[in-house]
Each structure stands twice: as structure tokens, then as C-alpha cells.
Amino acid sequence: MKFYSNRDPSLGKLSVNGESYDRAWLLERDWDFADNQQGVEFELLMHDYYIDEWNNHNKSMYNPRQRSLAIHGLHRLPNIKKLMYPEFYTNVSTDQNNSVLYIDRGKPDTLISLSSGSWVNTVTRNLLEHQVGYMLDKVTDYNVISIIEDYTRTVDNPILYDSCMYDGINYEINSTTKLVEYIKNLIPNTNYHILADCKNGHSSCLIAHELGASRVLIQSGISNCEYERELKQFCRPEFDNRYNLYEWNDLRFQVLLRQMHFCKDMPDKFKSINSIAEVTPNCEFTYVYCDKDESLYRYINSVTDTENVNKVPLAPTPYTFGNHYITIELENSGYFDRYFSDSW
After folding, report:
1. How far, in Å, CA of 165 to CA of 172, rounded?
2. CB 70 within 8 A of CB 120
3. Are 309 and 202 in contact (CB under 8 A)?
4. What does the pLDDT look like over 53-99, one tens digit per residue?
5. What residues does CATH 3.40.50.1820 cover in the chain?
6. Cα 254–Cα 256–Cα 260 angle in degrees, nearest 5
7. In what order do the strands lie in the sheet with 109-114?
8. How many C-beta atoms lie closer than 10 Å to residue 260's C-beta?
9. pLDDT for 209-245, tens place per residue?
10. Is-contact 210 308, C-beta < 8 A?
11. Distance CA 124, CA 138 (A)
């Protein structure tokens, strides 16, 4: 896979922890992301590229300090147990290098939060990002499990891992099936309810199907794994007849790279939220989004209301950051309270 840019990246070398990387490789190499070393090199060069892009064009969407900390902080991920402030969460049990937090209250219902999170935020904030970790203490009528990627494997290949949970969360729990088995063993014999967002939107529905979940609430999520169609918006084949050249995009394109690697043999019936809902009739799927979210409009438009799929638009508010991050809005507006109460 090769990439293009409207301008050449800065020439020279990027030096990280004694290793030297050639910036020109970003556009010259035919990248194979199944190769771990290439995955590391490409990720570091891309963060370096973004720093240069921000400094040259003053694009406020990029944070150069955060990118620089990510470049030089990747090596910290194997020591991830030291990254979470132990007082941040209360009354919880931990597992899988703190990538799983849970409370078993002996309730008949279990809420499973499949958080998107980010290894970049983890190393720059020195904190594991269980995005809705507060649910552990708040939703007292449920047992609660919060699951994120175990970033100890991300250091091996940050392009592919986190895998958006298509490949589970670590090298042992390395599939949706194994993750489902893990959940059932952790808190067995309950009704399962899933809360997910962003890059875990589609994979959370796969997990719901295998788990036999009762409900799934997806916030501003990726809605399918039809990566061939989505890749076309990044592809510029006219630049070179020998290759499809792709323009890099930080979030959505990484999701597509992971889907290309982990979902290439996905049966049609599991390729979208709607197709999964069709073969999972006893589960209720709710897709909530901001109606001004341009970043995921293709994914939003691909979701349709059906008998067990509810598509819920929100108007922008001061708490719908970037018209994409809507968790705070759902909390402040009481949406979560209504959803997780008997009055829903």
C-alpha cells in the first residue's frame, strides 16, 4: 500500500529512542502493515508528519505536543500497569493489565462498555482511557464491565492494534469469540447490555450477536466493515498505474486498515449493523449520533431504522464536541439515565 501527499514531507531523519527513521519512506515505500516493524515505522513517521503539517499550516485539529509525546512514548506501553492512577476508579476489580475494570453486584443485568480509547491519549495523559468508566459506580442496578484494548501489544504494531476489538483485546483474547467467552466467564448468566462508540461501533454489534445481548447502544459509531467501498474516498489511482495511492486520514483510515487485515473474510450477514440486527432479532440496536457529524456521515447514512434498529439524531450542543463526541451530552441531558432505567 502506497501513499501520496499534496506536498513532500520534510527530508531527513526522525530519531526515536536511538532508532533512526527516514521521512522519505512515508511516500516511497510500498507498505505492508502485517509486518510489525513497518507498522511501527509508519505510525511514528505519520505522527511526525502531522507535527510538520500543523506547524506549516497552523491546523488546530492537530496537537503537535501530543503527537511528539506519542512518538517518544510508544515504548512505555509494555509497562501499562504503571500508567493508570489507582485512585481514579473506586470499588472495582481489575484484569488484563487494567484493560478490564468490573463490578459484579449479583444483578440480573450486566452493562458492558466497549470503550474506544486511544494509546496516544494513554501515553500522553499517563492514564488508561476507560471513557465511560464512571458508569462502574453510577449504574448501580447493573453489574458493569468496562473493556478497552490491552495496549501492551500495541507497541508491536500500532497500525493494527488496537484492532477495534475485531482481534479481541490482547494476544490471548484475540477474537470476538474469545472476548465473548471471557465476558461470560467473568460475569455469567445475566442479561447483557452493550455500550460502545466510534471505532467500536460495528464490532460491538458482532460481539452482541455472539453474546446474545439484549441491547446495544452505539454512539457516533463506525457502522460497517465494507472497507472496499470506504477506501475509494482515500484512493487516487490516477497518480500511478502500478499502485492504488491513498491519502492518509488519522482516524477513519486506521479503522479501514484494521478492517482490511481482520475482516477480509467477514460473511455478508455480519458486515453492517443492519445486517447483524437482521440475524439477531431478539436484540435492540440503538444508533445515536449528532446530525451535524460530517466526519462519519457515510457511516451514519448507511444505518436505517428497522424493527430492532433505532436511529436517533441529536442536535448539536456545547457538549457535542466536534459534533462527534457525544458522551458528555448524553450524560448531561439525562439520556443515559433514561436508557438504563426501567422508564426507557
Report:
1. 13
2. yes
3. no
4. 666 655 544 577 788 888 888 887 877 766 665 556 667 898 998 88
5. 79-339
6. 120
7. 93-95, 100-103, 143-147, 109-114, 191-197, 215-219, 284-290, 309-314
8. 17
9. 999 999 999 999 999 999 988 877 776 655 554 455 5
10. no
11. 27
Task: Kindly report, residue by residue over 324-340, the tens digit of the pLDDT.
Answer: 989 999 999 999 999 98
Region for residue 298 given its phi and psi (left: phi exceeds 0; alpha: psi -120 to 50; beta: otherwise): alpha
Residues 79-339, CATH architecture: 3-Layer(aba) Sandwich (3.40)
Q: Which residue has the cell 507535527?
A: 51
**Residues of the chain below pLDDT 70:** 4-11, 53-62, 81-90, 235-251, 342-344
Cell of 72: 517518544
Looking at residue 154, its amino acid is T
C-alpha cell at position 282:
431478539
What's the 3-state SS for 12-48?
CEEEECCEEEECCHHHHCCCCCCCHHHHHHHHHHHHH
Residue entry with cell 505519520: 46
Q: Which ranges constitute the DSSP H helices of the chain? A: 25-28, 36-57, 64-73, 119-125, 135-138, 176-186, 201-211, 227-231, 250-262, 273-278, 297-301, 327-332, 335-339
Which residue bears the cell 481489575?
94
> Which residue matches cell numbers 486520514?
249
Determine the Cα–Cα distance for residues 284 and 216; give it in Å rounded to an integer: 6
Q: Is the dihedral of CA 55, 59, 65, 68 positive or negative?
A: negative
